[in-house]
From TrEMBL:
Identification of the protein by name: Dolichol kinase
TM region positions: 7-24, 30-52, 64-87, 138-156, 162-179, 199-217, 223-244, 256-277
InterPro entries (UniProt xref): Dgk1-like
Keyword Lipid biosynthesis: no
Natural source organism: Thermogymnomonas acidicola
UniProt KW keywords: Membrane, Transmembrane, Transmembrane helix
GO molecular function: ATP-dependent diacylglycerol kinase activity
Classification of source organism: Archaea, Methanobacteriati, Thermoplasmatota, Thermoplasmata, Thermoplasmatales
Domain of life according to the entry: Archaea
Keyword Transmembrane helix recorded: yes
Amino acid sequence: MYLSPGAIAYVSIGLATSISALSARGRSFIAPIAAVAAADALTVYFTGLYSVIPSSVLSLLSAYYIYTPGFYLPFSALFVLSIAASALRIDGYWPGADIGISAGTIIAMLMDGRIRGYVRRNESMKGRDRGREINRDIMQSVVGSIIIGAVFAFGLTLARELVSVAALILYIVGSYFTTHTESWAASFLLSLERGGTPLGIGAIWFASGVLLALAIVPHVRLLAVTLFVLVIGDSLATIVGTSVKSARLIFNRKKSVAGFLAIFLSSALFGLFMAGWHGVVLALAGSLVESAARYPFDDNYLIPLTCALISNAL
């Protein structure tokens, strides 16, 4: 198989960072590196996007070391690589990079004990402070609306690049303010987090899901429906579910019928407008996934994966 110079560079960077990870002291990277390697192999085989290799490994390292000084080196390498790829207009960089960033981050969130503890804490505090939850969901809906608007205003390619760079910037901002809490900016950001949860744990899941959707959902209108379910419908489910008393869902006693109807009806109407009955099918699938998801199967990555699978079949 012929490898272009760009592909060789990506593979070389990926191998170098993998070797560095495996030789790191104090943390075992063998299992997550194996998981990332499997994800990368499948991505390269089916898409030919070699940019997934360095981005996934650097994202894995960044996530593993988040909230510690060790975060900044791999993240800086990822950021510089991404900015350089954008500046050089390397064709096809961002779809592969977004898959890699999402995969590396999600694998770290699922496999590292320290981060799993943060995630479990985040899940256990969900819904305990209704006012804070509503503020979080309003913010998420605003961000989601901006992302959907950007896709139509700038086109998928440029919107993907802009959103991806913005996500990387917010990633480092969150990590920085977690350890520098004295500023008003840190106070504001922490006011959106659930009690006892490090800054950005929920946002990391959210960003991973958005980047994954931008990379793998094939059609712009179906992507818009996927993003609506993921970022706006999900927020409406929480707001309505915590505001309206209703029966609990049979398949998930933590979720309510009112919340399910909120995400499904809003997403179905948007989907019908965007993509006809195909959009309604996506809305139903995404709503069911959101309602059934439980840790460690987070809806932020299950929704885009499910919608991408269905989108490719429609």
